[in-house]
Design brief:
By secondary structure, this protein is an alpha+beta fold. The chain is built from eleven helices and 13 strands. It folds into two domains: about 200 residues, Ribosomal Protein S5, domain 2, CATH 3.30.230; about 170 residues, GHMP kinase, C-terminal domain (Alpha-Beta Plaits, 2-Layer Sandwich). Bound molecules: adenosine-5'-diphosphate and magnesium ion.
Length: about 375
């Protein structure tokens, strides 16, 4: 998908040219799972699929209008009087409302959204929508675009306006990633660094039911909080669970389940650091750490599924693939594999029929490499 596609869609829809076109990508996390809400580190890349927003200001109009290529319902609302509606456009009207609260004066507008980011697969189409809208709206309002500020604004929209309790990773990745680089993000301080990463990544969506996710996820969060409280009894200075030393955790004699959860978080956080060091040295990922991460998520955090484990085992057997793991919260969803592009491509083709036969779900897969974050693609000003 290209900016010209969004322009064409805008012309067809509104019979005129847009004033500005902006875009933002989906993302996938390479390593650092369940570390974000424990104050730890993550390492996402932007994928090479993007959401484009094309906008024309209509200061004389009494309402605004948005059309999405993925939705049949058209959004119509007054930019000066916004309320959450429970519809897909809340991600954009929420951005309007947050920009207005920051003192940005937004005109009424017409917009189209065109995207090839898969929705609802855990690749963060929601952050891509928020960020592409945020920067394009800021552009037509003549506001300077600070991408980190935009990421935080979009995160507030998702958590407070739409009401999805997510960490900051999705919005930071969609806003700040660079082509050929992973984004090393410290979720407690919001510091970031760009780390060169040239390898291809296969994303495999197991398309399996995620019915357990919400309840189990909440349970894990509670377990992490409890583990932190217990650890603080003997280590009052401990800032968060990700910072805990694995030895400190073992010495604390936590209840068995809490010890497993805490060890996963602490060791996973160290694995992020180790992968970053490796990338800095060689620009390639040390796959063994991805397999370790998967095993820890499977055995200590207990958030894997037979489908995700099966994918990782298939990847492990294939020559040319250096690492694989589940990505995202788990309990269904996606896994990744890294290595040589041809090997990843061949893996996806070879395993799809066997997967369908064994699990009776139709998987989807995408081959990507580290891509660029949000950017203005075109403007008439
Ligand atoms: P994910 O972010 O993992 O793709 P979410 O459930 O967080 O999944 O966000 C998906 C939702 O975001 C969709 O159901 C839809 O409401 C909205 N959305 C994302 N992209 C678009 C788009 N291009 N057009 C309209 N709505 C979109
Ligand atoms: Mg999302």
């Amino acid at each position: 998908m290209k900016p010209s596609d969004a322009r064409e869609f805008f012309r067809k829809t509104f019979g005129a040219d847009p004033d500005a076109i902006g875009s933002a990508p989906g993302r996938v996390n390479l390593i650092g799972e369940h570390t974000d809400y424990n104050g730890g580190q993550v390492l996402p890349i932007a994928i090479d699929r993007r959401t484009y927003v094309a906008i024309r200001a209509r200061p004389e109009a009494s309402a605004s209008k948005i059309v999405s290529s993925l939705e049949s319902t058209v959004a119509e609302f007054d930019v000066e009087n916004i309320a959450a509606s429970g519809n897909w456009w809340d991600y954009i009207t929420g951005v309007c409302s947050a920009l207005t609260a920051e003192g940005v004066r937004l005109p009424q507008f017409e917009a189209v959204v065109q995207s090839d980011v898969p929705t609802g697969s855990g690749l963060s189409s929601s952050a891509a929508l928020e960020l592409s809208a945020a920067i394009t709206l800021a552009q037509i309002a003549d506001e300077p675009i600070d991408l980190k500020k935009m990421a935080l604004l979009a995160w507030r929209v998702e958590t407070q306006f739409v009401g999805v309790a997510c960490g900051v990773m999705d919005q930071f990745a969609s806003a700040l990633c660079r082509d050929g680089h992973a984004l090393h993000l410290w979720c407690d301080t919001l510091e970031t660094e760009h780390v060169a990463m040239s390898e291809a990544v296969l994303i495999f969506d197991t398309a399996s039911p995620r019915s357990l996710r919400a309840s189990e996820f909440n349970k894990r969060r509670a377990e992490c909080e409890e583990a932190l409280l217990l650890l603080r009894a003997s280590n009052p200075a401990l800032a968060n669970l990700a910072e805990a030393d694995p030895e400190m955790i073992r010495r604390a004699h936590l209840p068995a389940t809490l010890e497993k959860r805490a060890l996963h978080v602490a060791q996973e956080n160290r694995r992020v650091e180790a992968v970053v060091q490796q990338l800095k040295r060689s620009h390639t990922l040390r796959g063994e750490l991805l397999y370790e991460s998967h095993e820890s998520l499977r055995d200590k955090y207990e958030c894997s599924t037979p489908e995700l484990d099966w994918f990782v085992e298939q990847a492990r057997k294939k020559r040319g693939i250096t690492g694989a793991r589940l990505t995202g919260a788990g309990w269904g969803g996606c896994a990744i594999a890294v290595g040589a592009r041809e090997a990843l491509d061949a893996l996806a083709h070879e395993i799809t029929p066997a997967y369908e036969q064994q699990f009776h779900h139709k998987p989807r897969s995408w081959l990507t490499s580290a891509s660029r974050g949000a950017s203005i693609e075109a403007t008439t000003k």
